[in-house]
Design a protein that fits this description.
The chain is mainly beta. The chain has five domains: about 100 residues, Immunoglobulin-like; about 110 residues, Sandwich (Immunoglobulin-like), CATH 2.60.40.3880; about 90 residues, Immunoglobulins (Immunoglobulin-like, Sandwich); about 80 residues, Sandwich (Immunoglobulin-like), CATH 2.60.40.10; about 90 residues, Sandwich (Immunoglobulin-like). About 5% of the residues lie in helices and about 50% in strands. The strands form ten sheets. It has a five-stranded mixed beta sheet with strand order 2-8-7-4-5, with no helix packed on it. Strands 18-25-24-20-21 form a five-stranded mixed beta sheet, with no helix packed on it. Strand 20 and strand 21 form a beta hairpin. The chain is elongated and about 130 Å long.
Length: about 550
């Protein structure tokens, strides 16, 4: 039982001793002491002209003083607060780099010291460094090499190097941030360029000569050719900044060669006198070579230069004799030695293609368009065209499909229409004429349609003379309206395509129907045509 009682009493005694010690322990007198702006440049420009000194007392002080000393912490320079009693709370003071007599203290390192004597708290001495700097740093770019810079062209010298010199850098001091150096690039359009820059020796805030390098080999192909600007900026802790700029050329693109005539992939039936084109690069092409069929590369001669473009003409008379495909290769080299090879191909073809074969027809036709169809052997060349000739004049050209079939609606003249077709290939060779289709267009007024009429068929309305408008109504045998068409254009011939659905978009059943066409003329007269026809919804 005694042992237990001691266990209870000992903790209580310890607590009492701790409370007594806490009551007698002196509190910290200065709760806060700091500077806002440890580096100042009191030159009157409104930037960092002063430093703010702030302290906070937790309790009143018998005496407190704040003094700016020289770097030796002994020689007083300026008294911010003379030694005197001070009450608890926060106070601010500002130092603008002056001495007590009002003169400029001069550049260099200083120490702000707070000394405080308390009633019960221990005496306090706190010091903070402050620097006065009125000399801006300077930077100068000496050279940029190589200029122009060709990223990725030389493995021995892959980077562009910017030689520059830094002077009047801030002295290195404990408690002061060193000067900062930045290198940026801008492309020809004024946009910033992402660049990884290395500087040798590494910049640590000291004056001296440096070389900053940018290796753009990895992304050089995406850089546009043109004039770039490099900016080197140095900033110090006093708020001063200096920038030096230099413009230089980047040549990242290969020269280009464009063939103008005959175009790449062209087919010709007459050999032109020369192969014409142009070569281009910023600041011009240094050299251009051409490789004829079965010959080595040789310099292009007789070329003319306009600005940065070299125009050339390669004679073809002696090079292209027989039918076939010819390839010409060009090697262009720019001023920095970057090169590119371009090949242009054309085909010399004098063989006429086969004549088309038209689906036979001879007879009368009651509508103003005849659906001409036929076949053509285009040799697998879908670029060939079929020219439609009506009464000796070409009226249309349609591409020959790979299926070798073609269809075209031929507008008819009143009376006899003699229609033939010829095939014209990509080289301009023309076949002989096809067989002849003779269509006699009967222009008699009336309503015409296919028999039987199936979904997708066309009603043709021919007016006796030029009409103002035409309406077409389709009724069932009970007199109910099935569908309605109208064309308000001026013409003699009208066509209405019907999909076999009524005005409610429902399919119409098979059976007899009545079509009524009303032709209205400018003089107010009209013609009405009525025809009964068989509609076959399931042809």
């Amino acid at each position: 039982m005694k042992y237990t009682r001691r266990l209870i009493q000992l903790p209580l005694l310890a607590v009492m001793l701790l409370l007594a010690f806490a009551e007698s322990a002196p509190a910290q007198l200065v709760a806060r002491f700091d500077l806002l702006g440890s580096v100042i440049s009191p030159d009157g420009d409104g930037r960092q002209d002063s430093t703010r000194v702030r302290y906070t007392l937790a309790d009143s002080a018998v005496a407190l003083g704040v003094v700016v000393f020289a770097a030796d912490s002994v020689t007083p320079v300026y008294t911010l607060r003379a030694m005197a009693p001070a009450s608890a709370g926060t106070r601010d003071f500002y130092w603008r780099g002056q001495r007590d007599n009002g003169t400029f203290a001069g550049e260099g390192a200083y120490v702000v010291t707070l000394t405080a004597f308390g009633n019960t708290a221990p005496d306090t001495v706190l010091s903070l460094p402050v620097f006065v700097d009125t000399t801006p740093p300077r930077v100068q770019i000496l050279s940029v090499t190589p200029n122009p810079y060709a990223p990725g062209l030389s493995a021995a010298r892959p980077a562009v190097e910017i030689a520059h010199v830094v002077s009047d850098a801030s002295p290195l001091s404990t408690g002061r941030a060193p000067d900062q150096l930045g290198v940026t690039f801008t492309n020809p359009s004024g946009a910033p360029v992402e660049a990884t820059v290395t500087t040798a020796p590494p910049f640590a805030g000291l004056s001296g000569n440096y070389v900053s390098s940018w290796d753009a080999s990895a992304g050089g192909a995406s850089l546009p050719d043109g004039e770039y600007r490099v900016d080197i900026t140095i900033d110090d802790a006093a708020g001063y900044s200096a920038t030096a700029s230099y413009r230089f050329e980047i040549d990242a693109a290969v020269p280009t060669v464009t063939i103008e005539s005959p175009a790449d992939g062209a087919r010709v039936r007459v050999v032109p006198d020369s192969l014409r084109g142009r070569a281009f690069d910023r600041h011009g092409v240094d050299s251009l070579y051409v490789k004829y069929p079965s010959s080595p590369y040789q310099p292009v001669t007789g070329a003319g230069v306009l600005d940065d473009t070299l125009r050339f003409a390669i004679p073809l008379t002696d090079s292209v004799v027989n039918e076939g495909t010819y390839a010409f290769s060009f090697r262009a080299v720019d001023q920095v030695g970057r090169s590119a090879v371009y090949t242009s191909v054309f085909t010399y073809d004098t063989t006429a293609p086969a004549a088309p074969v038209l689906d036979a027809f001879t007879g009368s036709w009651l509508t103003s368009f005849y659906p001409l169809s036929g076949s053509v052997d285009n040799g697998g060349d879908a670029s060939t065209l079929v020219d439609i000739v009506r009464n000796g004049a070409v009226i249309d050209s349609v591409p020959s499909a790979l299926s070798n079939r073609f269809t075209v609606n031929v507008p008819l003249e009143v009376g006899r229409n003699q229609i033939v077709a010829v095939q014209r290939d990509g080289a301009g060779n023309v076949s002989g004429p096809s067989n002849t289709v003779v269509v006699k267009f009967q222009s008699t007024g009336g309503l015409y349609f296919p028999v039987p009429f199936t979904p997708g068929g066309t009603f043709q309305v021919n007016a006796e003379r030029v009409a103002r408008s035409v309406t077409l109504r389709v009724f069932d045998v009970t007199g109910d309206l099935v569908t309605f068409f109208e064309d308000g254009g001026t013409s003699r011939y009208y066509a209405f395509n019907w999909n076999g659905r009524n005005s409610s978009d429902q399919p119409v059943r098979r059976g007899p129907l009545v079509a009524v066409a009303t032709v209205l003329y400018d003089d107010g007269s009209r013609d009405v045509y009525r025809e009964v026809f068989l509609f076959d919804s399931n042809p």
